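Entry 0007
Protein: 5-phosphohydroxy-L-lysine phospho-lyase
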Amino acid sequence: MVPFNPNSKSFRLQNLQKDHRPLKIVRASHQYMYDNTNSEYIDCVNFVSHVGHCHPSVVRAAYLTNNLEAITPGWDIDWGEPTYPQQLRHTLPEYLDTFLFCNSGSEAVDLSLQLSQLYTGGTEAVVTDNAFHGSIDSVHHLSPKVFKTNNITKADWVHIIPMPDLYRGEHRREDPAAIDKYLAEAREVVQGARQAGKVACFISEPMLIIPGCIMPPSTWLQEVYK
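Output (C-alpha cells):
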C-alpha cells in the first residue's frame, strides 16, 4: 500500500469525483491539462486530441497557414504543389482520387450525406445505435445518442441497426451465433429502409468510440456493407 499524498496527482484526480466546484482548465500541453491553480492533470477524457494538446508540429503548421497573405475570393488560387493530397492518395486504393477537405467531423458527415443522396437519388440513411456523428442539425438526425438523450423524435428517413457489442449487448461473445444474430438484425433494418425508399448511405464509426470504445467483430462492417 502506498499512502496518499494530498499533493500528488493521483489524489487530486480522485478528489475530482468528490469536489463539486467546477474544474477550470486554462491551458494544455501534450497529454497534460492545467487548471487555474496550475495543477497538472493527465487528459484521459478528450478523445479529439489524438496527437496531444498544442503539439509543436500542429502549432507551427497552423501558424504558417494563418500567416499566408491570402484572401477568400470566388476564384481558384495556385497554392503550389498539393503534396498532402498526393501523399494521402498513395495510402488509398487508386479509385479514391478526389479529396474534399472539411473543417470538422460534423461538416464531413454532412457533406457525405449530401453526396450520397445526390449520387444515389436515395433519401434513407442507416446508422448504428448510440452513435454520435456531429453537432449540426442534419448530422444530429444521424446521431441516435443525441435524439435519445434529448427525447427528440427520430426522423422517418433514419434507420438504426443494433450496435454489435459482444461485451454488454443483447448478443454476447459467449454465444457462438452472436455475430450472425447482429447481422440478421441489421439485414432486417436495411430491408425495412428499402421498403421506405432508396437507401443513400450507411454511416458508422469503424471503431465505436462514442458508446464506449467498442471494437466491432472483425467481419461485421464488411457483412453489413454486403
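Curator remark: The first strand starts at residue 25 and ends at 29. The chain has two domains: 1-70, 102-225.
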